[in-house]
Design goal:
Layout: H1 2-8, H2 14-46, H3 60-71, H4 75-78, H5 81-91, H6 105-110, H7 119-138, H8 144-152, H9 155-163, H10 167-180, H11 185-194, H12 205-211, H13 215-236, H14 240-247, H15 251-257, H16 282-288, H17 293-317, H18 321-335, H19 346-361, H20 367-387, H21 392-411
Helix pairs in contact: 2-8, 2-9, 3-5, 7-8, 7-10, 10-11, 10-18, 11-13, 12-17, 16-17, 17-18, 17-21, 18-19, 18-21, 19-20, 20-21
């Protein structure tokens, strides 16, 4: 009985989906309100003479501080951990957590408008803009109420909002590029170039574009990256990339050792624990479960090769934008060794595309349950791998990728090679 229910997905009715969406909206709204209230009211009153662990918006403090320094003509200070942290502490309430700017210089250029607003107003605008872009793209497949719910009230969106991160923007860029690739390849290529601020999520775009023979989008993406790099040097000075490369290795001990690097001494009272459980990658799962660095890299390499092969196979077999998009998103997360829970917002697009296609053509066995598992993994995946030692998020992503490839095979739609641009 249970096996048949999971196979058919009959338990996941439209009414149940709507009820889940309503419950998620209520819980996430209350949770986010509580997070803001704790930071702005309770903590300052109860602990007025003690620094908090992190500022409201957490990682957004980096984006705002980086753009503020760049606007003041001090972009080099963004990549000086001591100077950067001193700036944050002088412009935000005191906090303990060590923070640094981990993004390449073009990110300073893209986020420069943030410095024109006070911190809290910029934080609100940041979240609203990211959610609006996602909702606008989701509206192509969902009615407005469900599009807004899918953009705002998912576990990954909640994590992204609390962390003040850029997961909504990177998801919107990827989804927009995938949806526009066929009809507007040059715009899609330029959108792909915007991912140069998070290149680890764009690893498979060259494979996808070559498989689809979209040389126009490929060239547009390459030129866009060059122009963004040149613009960042023009805006911040020719040495900005050297300063960035000096601090770029900071990310390596995070991924390999699961802790913050000791570039700047951290307070003795601040306890730092491994956070591989929050990273939905094969490398992080292997490290969380006790694997060595070499073994973890080997497993990640295998996953990346299989993911690249999946994109090549899927994109050669179908020209359908939704199927191509879902395959790419699942494969992109399977290929990269470095991603965070807030990056899983992109799974919303893949799940919606598969769901709407299933509604039109009928769901394949286990497809509904796999989509449900995807959303569940964004909510409890970190706890499951930490407490039960089961890599739930990684399993859900690979299962969804296999089902998306099976849908391509079942459809038996071989893509006609797209014509080369004139």
């Amino acid at each position: 009985m249970i096996e048949e229910s999971l196979r058919s997905g009959a338990w996941l009715t439209d009414l149940r989906v709507r009820r889940i969406a309503i419950c998620a909206a209520i819980v996430i709204s209350l949770g986010f309100a509580l997070e803001i209230w704790l930071h702005l009211h309770l903590v300052p009153k109860r602990f007025s003479h003690q620094p908090v662990n992190f500022p409201v918006g957490e990682d957004f403090s980096n984006f705002w501080s980086g753009s503020a320094l760049a606007l003041q003509g001090k972009a080099a200070s963004v990549f000086d951990p001591s100077a950067f942290q001193a700036f944050e502490h002088s412009h935000l309430p005191p906090f303990l957590q060590f923070r640094w700017y981990a993004y390449p210089p073009m990110a300073l250029l893209l986020t420069l408008p943030l410095a024109l607003l006070p911190y809290l107003a910029a934080y609100a605008a940041w979240l609203a803009a990211g959610a609006a872009l996602c909702a606008l793209l989701l509206r192509r497949h969902l009615p407005w109420p469900m599009a807004i719910a899918a953009a705002v009230f998912t576990p990954a969106s909640f994590i992204n909002a609390v962390a003040g991160q850029n997961g909504a923007f990177s998801a919107a860029i990827i989804a927009g590029a995938l949806l526009l690739l066929t009809e507007h390849p040059l715009i899609a290529g330029l959108l792909i170039s915007l991912l140069s601020f998070k290149p680890h999520l764009a690893l498979l775009f060259p494979v996808a574009l070559i498989a689809a023979r979209r040389w126009d989008a490929f060239v547009a993406a390459a030129l866009g990256c060059v122009l963004l790099a040149a613009a960042s040097m023009a805006a911040s000075g020719s040495d900005i990339w050297r300063h960035y490369l000096d601090v770029a290795p900071v990310n390596r001990p995070i991924m390999e050792l699961g802790r913050l690097p000791e570039i700047v001494p951290t307070p003795a009272k601040l306890v730092i624990t491994a956070f591989w459980n929050r990273m939905p990658t094969i490398f992080a799962a292997a490290r969380e479960l006790g694997g060595g660095i070499g073994l973890s890299y080997a497993l990640q390499l295998i996953s990346a090769v299989l993911a690249a092969a999946s994109v090549w196979h899927g994109w050669r077999r179908t020209s359908d934008p939704e199927l191509r998009g879902a395959i790419f998103i699942f494969a992109a997360l399977a290929a990269t060794p470095y991603a965070w829970d807030y990056d899983l917002i992109m799974l919303t697009f893949a799940a919606v595309w598969l769901w709407t296609r299933g509604k039109r053509e009928g769901f394949l066995p286990y497809e509904k349950s796999a989509i449900a598992l995807l959303f569940a993994s964004t909510m409890i995946g970190a706890a499951v791998i930490r407490l039960l030692h089961i890599p739930m998020a990684q399993i859900a992503i690979w299962l969804a990728l296999c089902l998306a490839l099976r849908r391509v095979t079942k459809a038996q739609t071989v893509a006609t090679p797209e014509p080369l641009p004139a």
